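Example record for the data management plan.
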Amino acid sequence: MKQYTIDENSGNQRLDRYLAKLMPLADRNFLQKMLRKKRIKLNGGRADPKDTVHIGDTVQVYFSEETIAGFQEKKAQRHFDLTSEIKKIFEPPVYEDDHLLVINKPAGLLSQADVSGDISLIDAARTYLKKNTPGNTEAFDVVISNRLDRNTSGIILMPKDYPTLQAVNAAIRERQALKEYHTIVSGVLKKPGTLTGFLTKDTTENKSAIQSQSGKGAKEVRMDYCPLTDNGRFTLLEVTLHTGRSHQIRSQLTDYGFPIIGDYKYGDPSINRQFNQKYGLNHHLLHSRHYAIKDLGYDFTAPYPPLFKQLLKDLKLDREAF
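Corresponding structural encoding:
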């Protein structure tokens, strides 16, 4: 028998979820069966998978040490030697304390690993924290609370412990987070407004579409937009998200008739070609500029990426106030 004491990184979650993290290679049905047979106990007594574990609780696992070790063997985390460009995002980060790491993600960097095998922000953050956090353990693996598309830049929140993860995710889920994006669109908008509709996703093409009425698989979307300045041809927009659907901003703005510059999936091919030839722009100009969770005391602003900043200047859209 081996006994585990619930600490601050493990408390306030369901027992079955705790066990899945403790023994990630064990089948969940098997673990539930072991709970029924009292081969796994909570505080010395019989427990239900839905029971909540609290700090100071004890979990007794009546398996051999070899069996437990087998269920705990994890695929080795990927290690990367960070390039100078990726190191810059940690020198310094937007914000960091003992509980939270906030990064200004550059366009082109994955938020988390995918089948491409390319380095992701998660990989880079693990390497950074391992080297820069005294006494750092792998009891809690760094995670992302607000994922951005590969080619979207800006604010990403990375909780360092389970209580912070719970608090941040709860605020996001309850729509308490203020999420403001800046983007440059083709066309001129003079007045603020609100866009609503229903979004559908074609998973085969990885492309979203907006429709005016609800339908099968459609999800309601809503966002506010506010023009910051324009040059008679392009507009710098501030977008406030109220729902966070896949490609929502890009697809809604295109549907409205104001595609984002550099958006090769939803944008204007001729305009994109001009910016690619002149600036080498190969990604959409969408930047998560401001992220705040008032109840948690979080309020973060991410500087513009260099190319975004250059285009603001060249297009005469730059204003010190922004």
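Summary line stored alongside the record: The chain has a mean pLDDT of 90.
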